[in-house]
């Protein structure tokens, strides 16, 4: 008789059942893992569930279909680091995500399958300190990543290359 080895965690069936359109995020221990995108993010100050919710929230606030989730995860990492050092900030974020999940219903914010439904929940909290902290930081933490610039056709600063005038300042084809 063959020996059967059982591994703790998700079975292949459970992983596929939980997957939807987009990358499935797996919460394990102190990490958020995306097997499809081959990246992981170990948390320091926030709960992994909170970080996974913030990643989904970031995508809903600044949606770019072609941009992989890992860039949103990198943008959220600063909130995790700040929460590890500042108890009041950690409370703001953890309670903000808990409120977001309550407003979303039984399956929480990430459980809402339609972007339209998630945006409706975000509109309910857009005046809160929690939402403003996340939204305002994302403007810099998401778009200041050099790796995302090619997705938008941005070549970076031009001063060190002689400026835009002599480099085809009007060659942007997506505007």
Describe the protein's architecture and organization.
By secondary structure, the chain is mainly α. It has a domain at 44-145. It has 7 helices and 3 strands. It has helices at 12-18, 48-61, 69-85, 87-104, 115-125, 129-143, 149-152; strands spanning 26-28, 31-34, 39-42. It has a 3-stranded antiparallel beta sheet, covered by helices on one side. Helix 2 packs across helix 3, helix 3 (69-85) packs across helix 4 and helix 3 (69-85) crosses helix 6. The longest helix has 18 residues, at 87-104. It is globular, with a radius of gyration of 19 Å. It starts with 11 loop residues before the first helix and ends in a 23-residue tail after the last helix.
Descriptive keywords:
175 residues; mainly alpha; three-stranded antiparallel β-sheet; 49% helix; disordered N terminus; Gluconate 2-dehydrogenase subunit 3 family protein; TAT_signal
Write the layout of secondary structure elements.
Blueprint: H1 12-18, E1 26-28, E2 31-34, E3 39-42, H2 48-61, H3 69-85, H4 87-104, H5 115-125, H6 129-143, H7 149-152
Antiparallel strand pairs: 1-2, 2-3
Query: Rg from C-alpha positions?
Result: 19 Å
Q: Output mean pLDDT.
A: 82
Provide the spatial order of strands within the biggest beta sheet.
1-2-3
| Helix content class | 40-55%
Protein name: Gluconate 2-dehydrogenase subunit 3 family protein
Organism: Chelativorans composti
What does this entry show, briefly?
The chain has helices spanning 12-18, 48-61, 69-85, 87-104, 115-125, 129-143, 149-152; strands at residues 26-28, 31-34, 39-42.
